[in-house]
Amino acid sequence: MMAVTPPVCDFGAPAPDFLLPDPDGHPFSLSQIAGTRGTLVMFICNHCPYVQAIIDRIARDAAELQKLGIGVVAISANDVTEYPQDGPEHMAIEARKHGFTFPYLYDQSQDVARAYDAQCTPDFFGYNAQLQLQYRGRFDSSRRTAAEPDARRELFEAMVQIAETGQGPREQIASMGCSIKWRS
């Protein structure tokens, strides 16, 4: 499995709108998720070792960011015909297992992933209160295995900065992960 690195942050790019269901079929839109101080859109999946290495840290940081007025959502867009473990029923289990405090949505058409130009799992998009892109970097220094427990919380720090100033850090290290599993 080859690692993929997404492009650098396109500062100011608007957040594409969406309406996607959670595993129970309840639809969520970007406007429902957007926070008063910023919004974090994450593309993840259940089977990727890069995601699994940080999934509990994602849940921890998301809960803390929500308390700061940042809306958080995770989206899975993988082809579930080829990767059935990424399907909605498994997404629901994953969300419960890790105590997600944010919606975990399924992009069956993959249209939302394409609109965001998501490249890999995990791929993080941090927006300010005006839904202008300010961060497209990595979570922390983790790779296929988790970084040390005291690793710098790069995504968390960036989102706090965005909440406080409306601007993301100018220096960002791209995320790395498994490619999105596009349907043929």
UniProtKB/TrEMBL annotation:
GO terms for molecular function: antioxidant activity; oxidoreductase activity. It comes from Paracoccus litorisediminis. InterPro entries: AhpC/TSA, PRX-like1, Thioredoxin-like_sf, Thioredoxin_domain. It holds the Pfam family AhpC-TSA. Gene3D superfamilies: Glutaredoxin. Residues 9-161 form the Thioredoxin domain. This is Redoxin domain-containing protein. It comes from the Bacteria.
